[in-house]
Structure formats: C-alpha cells, structure tokens
Design goal:
By secondary structure, this protein is of the alpha+beta class. It has one domain. The chain contains twelve helices and four strands. Helix 4 crosses helix 9 and helix 5 crosses helix 7. About 2% of the residues have low confidence.
Length: 270
C-alpha cells in the first residue's frame, strides 16, 4: 500500500511539474491556440491524402489497426463509445500504463488536451497518459484514444522512442499532418469515431475521382452528415454545451478527424 501511495505521489508531482513547465516551453503553440481560425483555414485547404502517403505507410497502418482491434473488438466496424473516466482507467491498466486525469484550466490551460510520456529509466517504469478533464467528455475520451495511439506506435513500430513527452494541443491539428507519430495517433481516433460502414455512407461521393485519390474540399452536405453522426453517436453538438469561446477549437477537431477519415477511405479503402 505504501509503495502504491508513493508511486501515485510521484506521478502527481511529475504531472504537475509538466503542466507548469508547458506554459513556458510550449508558449508558441499556446499562442497559436488563441487563433483557432488559422488552424481551420489550413485544414480546409489541405489535401489529407498527401499527408497519409508521406507519413503513414499502409503496412504500419494495418499493424496499428490490428492492435486496436485486439483491444477493442469491433474497432472500425462499429462506433467506439464515449467511455467515462473509470473505463479509461481500466483500459490504461490493461495496457500497463499510468493514468492521470485532472482539470487543467487556469490561464491558457485549455490549450492542452493531454500528453503521453514514454517509460524513462529512473523516472517512469511504465508509460503515462494524462488527459485534461476540463474539456468536454468526448474530447477527453478522444484524447485518451490519441495517446493510446502514441503508445501503440511506440511499442509496435518503435516510433519516437527518444521523444520523452508527446503533447496534444487543441487547434494544432494542421501540424499533426506532417508528423508521422501524431498522424498515426489521430488516425486511431478517426477510425474509432467513424467506423468503415459509417464512413462509406458519409463520404460516399464527395471527393474527386481521378488517377490519384484526393481528400481536400469537403462539401457542406458531408459536413452536415458529420455533425448528424456525432449527435447520434455521442450526443455531441458543437452549438450545444460548448462555450462560445471554444467552438472554433472544437470545429477544428471536427473538420480534422472527418477529413482524415475521408482520406483513409479514398486512399487505402479502409
């Protein structure tokens, strides 16, 4: 019991220190978070298929999907539900991870969605996932899924083993498109929310077919279907229960994960 309490105390202190240091070390990303419209403009213009081709090879993608399917039977066949914190803690324990969930509001605290820390000799015997519970429950569950994606990429593919902390900042999705480990983690979130049967219905025709698949200009009709799906599957509506000053941040995420799912279907037929 004493050993467990000491471990929990060390984790608490580590998370607190990282949260404090983040404000200085990641000041540039926090400033960018204050201008979510800039991220949205980049996402709307971007062809997601190009990012997939450059940064996430098909074989690696199938490896990660296989790992998630073992953990979550039905993954990419049915929607992964919005898990409460106790279920996320159970999932973390099954993966032999430390798990910390707490609100990080304060000044600019909402900029951070969460982070993943790899195991570090003399510091962490097991990897750690932190999620910021100041966000909407759907965002919390999505953040956890994203961080598990980092863990699986690290364990299975050996990616970013020298990067001690992977931060997930809200409205920073455009940068994820050029970072293989971030893109892989986001793909897992996208597949969890839009399993293949639903993706084929929502994104049946919007992209431009040709010699090369593209996923750039999402139609208003497709976006409306995305909103309808999130409402039905999770009871989530960006205009309800989301403070006005946070709606653009959530819109950024909604566009990002939808276009990413569209690109996976267009490029890899997944």
């Amino acid at each position: 019991m004493a050993a467990t309490l000491n471990a929990e105390s060390r984790i608490e202190k580590l998370v607190t220190r990282i949260l404090v240091e983040t404000r200085d070390k990641e000041a540039q990303k926090i400033e960018a978070w204050k201008k979510p419209s800039d991220d949205i403009k980049r996402l709307v213009r971007h062809d997601y298929v190009r990012s997939l081709r450059r940064n996430l090879p098909y074989r690696e993608l199938r490896t990660l999907i296989g790992a998630f399917s073992e953990m979550l039977p039905g993954f990419n066949r049915e929607v992964v539900g919005m898990m409460p914190l106790d279920k996320l803690a159970e999932w973390a324990a099954a993966l032999d991870l430390h798990f910390k969930a707490s609100p990080n509001e304060g000044e600019d605290g909402l900029a951070l969605r969460g982070f993943y820390i790899t195991r570090r000799k003399g510091i962490l015997k097991r990897p750690l996932i932190y999620v910021n519970t100041a966000h909407h429950p759907l965002a919390v569950a999505s953040t956890f899924c994203h961080e598990v994606g980092h863990h699986m990429s690290s364990e299975l593919l050996g990616e970013d083993i020298d990067t001690p902390v992977h931060f997930f900042f809200d409205a920073d999705y455009a940068s994820h498109l050029e970072e293989p480990s971030e893109l892989a983690a986001d793909v897992m979130v996208s597949l969890a929310a839009y399993p293949e049967p639903i993706a084929r219905r929502i994104f049946a025709t919007p992209w431009k077919w040709g010699l090369v698949a593209r996923a750039k200009d999402m139609t208003e009709a497709a976006l409306a279907q995305v909103r309808g799906h999130l409402k039905k599957a999770y009871g989530f509506d960006i205009m309800e229960r989301i403070p006005a000053n946070q709606r653009l941040h959530y819109l950024s995420g909604m566009i990002h994960y939808a276009k990413l799912r569209w690109a996976l279907l267009a490029e890899y037929d997944i």
